[in-house]
Amino acid sequence: MMKRISELVTAMAKREWHKNVDSKSIHQRCYTMLMCLVFGLFGAGAAHGAGTDPLADAVARGHQLFTTHTFQGSGRTCESCHHAGGRGPTVLPNGVRKPSIAGAASYFPRFNPRVGHLVTLEDQVRRCVAGGLQGQPPAYDSAEMRAMIAYLTSLSQGKVIDMGGRPK
Ligand code: HEC
User: Fold this and answer.
1) Partners of 118 in the beta sheet?
2) Gap from CA of 142 to ligand 1 centroid (Å)
3) What is the rounded CA–CA span in Å between residue 67 and residue 157?
4) Of the residues 128, 140, 144, 146, which should be mutated to test ligand 1's pocket, given the most ligand atoms within 8 Å of the CB?
C-alpha cells in the first residue's frame, strides 16, 4: 500500500500522471467538484431555511396570541373561554358551556341575527377581542389578524365546509 502511494507520488512528481488523465477529464472532474460544492452549499442553505415556513409560522404565532395575548384588555386571553387552545369546550365566565370553536373556519361566514349582518371569522375575532377580552381588536389587515385566522383555520383542517352552519 505504502509502496503504491509512493509510486503514485513519484509518478505525479515526474508529471507522468498526465499521460493517464487527459485534460478534458480533469476539467470534467473540477467541474463536478465545483458543482457538488455549490449544490452542497445550496442544500445546507435550504436545510437552514426549513424552519421558516410562512404558513406554519403564522399558525404558531396565532396559537401564541390565542393562548397568551390580552390585546391590552382586562387580562383574559382567548383561551380563558375557549379552552385547550380552542379545541376544548367554550366555558363562559358565568359557567355557561358552549361547543368548541374548533370547526369555526368551516362554518364561517354566517349570518348572526344578533348583529344583523354576515359575520366573517375576522369579524368574530374582533367581536371577541372587544367583548370577551375588553381589548383592542387587531386591524383586519394586520399580521396579528392573519396569524389568528391561520391558527383558527388550522383547527378546522380536514373538516367539511358547511358555510353558515352550526358548531358540531
Ligand atoms: C369571555 C369569553 C370569551 C373570550 C375571552 C373569547 N371569546 Fe370567542 N366567543 C365567546 C362567545 C360567548 C362566543 C359565541 C359562542 C356561541 O354563541 O356559541 C364566541 C365565539 C367565538 C368564535 C365563533 C365560534 C362560534 O361557533 O360562534 C370564534 C372563532 C371565537 N369566539 C374566537 C375567539 C378568539 C380568537 C378569542 C380571543 C381573541 C376569543 N374568541 C375570546 C366568548 C369568548
Assistant:
1) 111
2) 19
3) 19
4) 128
In a domain, 164, yes or no: no
The 10s digit of each residue's pLDDT in 80-122 is 999 999 999 999 999 999 999 999 999 999 999 999 999 999 9
Q: Which amino acid is at 94?
A: N
Question: Tell me, what CATH number does 125's domain have?
Answer: 1.10.760.10
Strand partners for 111: 118
Nearest CA to ligand 1 atom 12: 92
* Tens digit of each residue's pLDDT (9 = 90 or more) over 14-45: 554 444 445 555 566 545 555 545 555 554 54
Judge if 36 and 80 occupy the same domain: no
| Cα-trace Rg, the chain | 30
Q: Which range of residues forms the domain containing residue 71?
A: 54-155
- Domain for residue 160, yes or no? no
